[in-house]
Amino acid sequence: MRAMDVSWLDMTVTPAALVDLDRVEANLARVAAYTRQRGLRWRPHTKTHKTPELAQLQLAAGAQGVTVATVREAEVMASVCDDVLLAYPPVGTERLDRLMDLPPHVRLTVALDSSEALHPLAHAARRAGRTVGVLVELEMGMRRVGVQSPADAVKLAREAAYSSGVEYRGITFYAGHLRLPQAELGPAMRAQSERLLAFVEALTAEGLRPETVSGGSTPTLWRSHDVAGLTEIRPGINIFNDRNSVSVGACEWSECAYSVLATVVSTAVPGQAVIDAGSKALAKEEGFDASGGYGALLDMPEVRVHGLSEEHGLLDLSRTDWRPRVGDRVRVVPNHACASVNLHEKLHVMRQDRHVATHAIAARGW
Question: The whole model's pTM is what?
Answer without folding.
Answer: 0.96
